[in-house]
Amino acid sequence: MIAAAGDSLDSLYHQNSAYDMNNFSDRLQLTTYKMGGLPDVNTENSGFQEYFFNFLKDAIDAGADGFRFDTAKHIALEDDPVESKEMENNFWTNTMNFLKDRNIQFPMTKFCRAERIDWSIISMPSEPQPQAIMAKRSATQFC
Q1: What per-residue string of b and e applies to 44-77 under the rule 16 or more CB within 10 Å gives b?
Q2: CA nearest 120: which of 30, 49, 17, 20?
Q3: What's this model's pTM, rounded to 2 decimal places?
Q4: Which of 5, 57, 103, 111 shows the smallest number of beta carbons within 10 Å?
Q5: C-alpha torsion 136→50→30→67, nearest 10
């Protein structure tokens, strides 16, 4: 994975992983700072995404027909702040497009991301689209 991300831990992890997250309301901290002493993977790194998509492809080839992202709230949405001007929050757009291109169906009408601190609902259409990833961050519904 390190090789795929650019042959260094500096490129595998967010630059902000040097800092401890202490504000769960701050989207930049939530999506780039380390938590519990663990650095945050730079999901915007194209090499990491390719590595991750190869894993998903292998899982699909082995028969997987759905995926659960337990740490979804810690992965930036397109409109979240970025840690540098060169960065683009494109993980969810690229992931949904990757899965759509492989005919992974989304029979559910909503995608739930659950964490002890916050429950949120992300609306999903029958066919994933990049704009479907825009979270309704104030939702308090449970799945």
Answers
A1: bbebbbebbbeebeeebeeeeeeeeeeebbbbbb
A2: 30
A3: 0.71
A4: 103
A5: 50
Tell me if residue 110 falls in helix, strand or coil.
Answer: strand
Joined together, the tokens standing for residue 76 give: 């930036």
Contact 96, 77 (CB under 8 A): no
pLDDT in tens, the chain (143 residues): 889 988 989 899 999 999 999 998 999 999 999 988 999 999 999 999 999 999 999 988 898 877 777 788 889 999 999 998 888 999 999 988 888 888 776 543 344 444 433 334 444 444 444 433 343 333 333 33
CA atoms within 13 A on the CB side of 65: 5
Of 97, 108, 31, nearest to 68 by C-alpha is: 108
Cβ distance 122 to 132 under 8 Å? yes
Among candidate residues 102, 106, 9, the one with its CA nearest the CA of residue 48: 9
